[in-house]
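Chapter review: from sequence to fold.
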Amino acid sequence: MLPRDAYLFGLLSLALHGCGAGSETSPPPAAPKAPASAAAQGASTGPAKAPDKLERDALKTVLPMGLPWLLRRVWPEEVFREGKFVGWRLVAIPEEWTGLDVRPDDVVTRVNGKTVETPEQLWDAWTSLATAPELRVTYERGAETKEIVLPIAGAPAPELLASLTSPSPPPRKAPGKRGTIVIESREPAGDDPDAK
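The token string follows.
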């Protein structure tokens, strides 16, 4: 897997993290190992409703974890047509994405209107979620272009954006002057080659 493969799908997984439930268009999740009560089983047999928003607080928790945390949840493949990059094919759909109209073989082409071909473009889309009003994922399914739009509930977090985009920790305050250090050297007696 190429590094940029991981970046893109990390972003998509992050963006859709916490959007769990069942889907009308995808098969229901596997049955739990421990049997539930008959009433609970009857209530959970129908498809669950897809989420209608993302919570900013969830993004504040997940964004700082970075893309490696997300790479364990997705498997990307680059898609090229006529020698040009098109997007990223979803090979598998993480459990966190159930409830959304996303399937294996869908090709993600944009996140919040941004192309995500290079690691820099992906990072830009990733960090923009700290202040974005919504998550918008554009993808292709066959010949059809589709889009998932989820509003992000909660106030924008510019401080989170600043911490994600800062290349290093803030500089330390310069220490006050401590004086001048002078190192003097004296030739010990008898070590001067010219003195005889």
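Two observations follow directly from the output. Residues 3-23+49-165 form a domain with the Pdz3 Domain fold (CATH 2.30.42.10). Residues 1-11, 13-45 have pLDDT under 50 and may be disordered.
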